Amino acid sequence: MSFFARWLVTAIAVAAAVWLVPGIEIIGGDSAWIGIALFALILALVNMSVKPILQVLSLPISVLTLGIFYLVVNTLMLYLAAWLANGLFGVGFWIASFGSAFVASIVISIVSAIVNSIVGDK
User: Fold this and answer.
1) What is the DSSP letter of 30?
2) How far is CA 21 from CA 25, 42, 93, 95, 121, in A?
3) CA–CA separation, 58 vs 73, rounded Å?
4) Which of 10, 29, 26 minimizes the C-alpha distance to 18?
5) Of these four, 10, 37, 95, 96, which has the most CB atoms within 10 Å of its CB?
6) What gap in Å lies between CA 96 and CA 22, rounded to an integer?
7) What Cα–Cα distance (Å) separates residue 106 from each residue in 14, 33, 68, 89, 110?
8) Could you tell me the sign of the dihedral formed by the alpha carbons of 63, 50, 47, 92, in that order?
């Protein structure tokens, strides 16, 4: 899958999370779509670079929890991307609590999986 397609899928998933999850808001920017696009770009870059390293490091805990700890890794990636987007561009996510981030990471994972299955590898 090309990077542009991955970015578009992530943007759709982030928009769904902003719409569905209370405690998650887009901050900064002229419009919400610019904030979503920039945040999705940073989240896609973080997921491609940092997430595989954290998944390998957390492998023993993930085996013990039968893979449920990967949801915590996804939540941490969401926090990292929000911190980077807010710090670098002043645009991104405002996360009210860990619970909101946890639910948002689940929503982003589910929506990404659905949109990826529709888009495919082509």
Assistant:
1) S
2) 9, 20, 12, 10, 29
3) 8
4) 26
5) 10
6) 9
7) 11, 21, 11, 25, 6
8) positive
| pLDDT score recorded for residue 31 | 74
Other C-beta atoms within 10 Å of 21: how many? 21
Contact at 8 Å (CB) between 86 and 79? no
- Could you give the angle at the alpha carbon of 104 between the alpha carbons of 3 and 63, nearest 5°? 80
Name beta bridge partners: 27: 92
Classify burial at 36, counting beta carbons within 10 Å of its beta carbon; exposed 0-12, middle 13-18, buried 19 or more: buried
* ∠ CA 23-27-31, rounded to 5°: 120
Contact 91, 38 (CB under 8 A): yes
Please write the tens of the pLDDT for every residue from 43-94: 988 988 998 999 899 999 999 999 899 999 999 999 999 999 888 888 878 8
In the numeric block, which tokens belong to residue 96?
């009210």
